[in-house]
């Protein structure tokens, strides 16, 4: 039998799919008996209450007056090395090339080659930063120097090879959900707070970065609402939020569009929706689509990046080219009008989330990688 491992995890701990995946994976590994050490600048938001086998080490950044920019990355590298030595970690599993894989490389230099590094690429570290000449070579080096590299979709693997011309094998490990977190039936009282029984609820959840095309979400909603009385719920915050609020005011939709801000219990909000809207410009995976699928909520979105690896067009959602809001709205109307089709899509979504993106299977895949690097294979 394989021994239990001591694993350090570093990730962006606040809202965002990569932080969710890293935290949920850490929780599952700890439940299985591994010792898990989160090394981040803040407590990961999904960590919640105390869990046995989970430890949290906060990265503190010195604010010395000569620094124009506080050196977070150096502080993180130092902390990774300190924790690795003190806790005798077997490996660091870092999520995102920048800065985590680069810091893990530095930590390994400080600790020794017995400390292994597994890097998971999540998307914008490659699709945006990989093109940035000020970071490109560093990202490439961090990928090459990792003991194993994974990416969350085949599309991201292809793009990483294209953008960075790396020679390192990159393994596909999809993101996952625990379907048990999403099966709660919709709360009728909560739903009644947003919509009348004959009205539909559309949902968009993101960090409101330009890549999410928030204006497209509003345009799709406007076209759907012309045909079917509906409400739109927005969850999350980010740079495009103010623009979205203004657009909603201009269109006179303030009673129809609800901005909930950041929410911790996303499963409950997802459960209220009839459709998820995800018209992103770029999406390496689209964890929110998987969360919606697990709750039986079909997705209408773009066919960008890894979305088609998650949502099957015509089976558990509908996808259209980026920016084709008319087509997306037509698909949404078609699905909302046909209750039989909606139920089939909803069932197919739940089944697909369970079969293809099972938390247990993905954890086993990561464990297999951990044991392989630990044995130097
Ligand atoms: O989409 C974002 O802006 C957040 C970012 C993150 O850090 O979580 O998401 C990326 O990683 C997620 C988890 O693997 C993926 O589901 C998202 O598709 C990916 N975002 C992009 O590729 C734009």
TrEMBL record:
InterPro entries per UniProt: Glyco_trans_1 (IPR001296), Glyco_trans_4-like_N (IPR028098), Thiol_BshA (IPR023881)
Source organism, top-level taxon: Bacteria
Domain Glycosyltransferase subfamily 4-like N-terminal, residue spans: 16-179
Annotated ranges, domain Glycosyl transferase family: 198-341
GO biological process, one term: bacillithiol biosynthetic process
Pfam families registered for this protein in UniProt: Glyco_transf_4 (PF13439), Glycos_transf_1 (PF00534)
GO molecular function, one term: glycosyltransferase activity
Matches recorded under PANTHER family: GLYCOSYLTRANSFERASE (PTHR12526), N-ACETYL-ALPHA-D-GLUCOSAMINYL L-MALATE SYNTHASE (PTHR12526:SF599)
Protein name: N-acetyl-alpha-D-glucosaminyl L-malate synthase BshA
Gene label: bshA
